[in-house]
Amino acid sequence: MVAGVLRLLVPATRSALEDCHTCEARCRSLCGSVSDEHLTEFADIAETVRLRPHQRIVTEGDPADHTFNIVSGAAKLVKALPDGRQQIVGFLLCGDFFGLPVQGAYPYGVEAIGEARLCRFERTRFEALLRRLPAVETALRERLIGDLASAQEHMLSLGQKSALERLTGFLLQLSGRAGGLGLSSNPVQLPMTRADIADYLGLTLETVSRSFGRLRDQGLIAVRGRHEIALEAIDRLKELAQGDDETVRVRPTEGEPRCRSAGY
CB neighbours (10 Å) of residue 47? Predict the structure, then answer.
């Protein structure tokens, strides 16, 4: 665990159950599948972790001894490359759960984007709780299936889609995730930076900025500051995400992956 995080841990107390009952993330997370009768069991094994912006709670290669739930804020999954560079491989939003299934060591690092609050569970105690609460285990399995489908879609995006298709798909994915977690799906909240988006999509910052500009100029989105995007024409955006980008094509900058099927 990264130095500096442990002193931010708040041990569970008798007030932890009250925190669980009033937690805004409960209806969006695995805890939403826990009945009031069993919520005490969750509260008893939970620790609160508060993170500063850019602080890591998980480092790639650390023993996978804990699982986590995002209560507020957002985080990014970071994978180290052999040459020392890092690649963002995913984002975590309020209500997201991570750390399962992981065996041995964490295959990625997790870094807070801004200020964030998490619940931390000792892995062995959490797994024992899952065995006693099949409804929670089922909810976890459904989330993992959804995560796998999203990962497969992202791999397709990197290998076969144009810059504009990647960005449009990313915005729609965030919108869908927010809606699925009980948050507002439109406008889309973007807690991450444009550089983070570029890293995740395998593009340059310049290309991401030009893609946002094209979508805005076509009236498909409205940019409401650095962290909020209104989707103005969702049906058209869905068409673009599926490959119909003839009217607003953006070519990747030199050195970025080029999509053969898009005619680059």
Answer: 17
What is the CATH architecture of 6-143? Sandwich (2.60)
What pLDDT is attached to residue 179? 84
- What is the third-level CATH fold of 161-262? Arc Repressor Mutant, subunit A (1.10.10)
Rounded distance between C-alpha atoms, residue 140 and residue 126, angstroms: 12
pLDDT digits over 126-147, tens only?
A: 888 888 887 777 777 776 766 6
Residues 209 and 216: beta-carbon distance below 8 Å: no
| 5 pLDDT more than 80 | no
Instruction: Report the C-alpha gap between 22 and 63 in whole angstroms.
Output: 32
In the numeric block, which tokens belong to residue 64?
């996978």
Q: Which residue reads 């006693």 in tokens? A: 132
pLDDT tens across 155-166, in order? 666 667 889 999
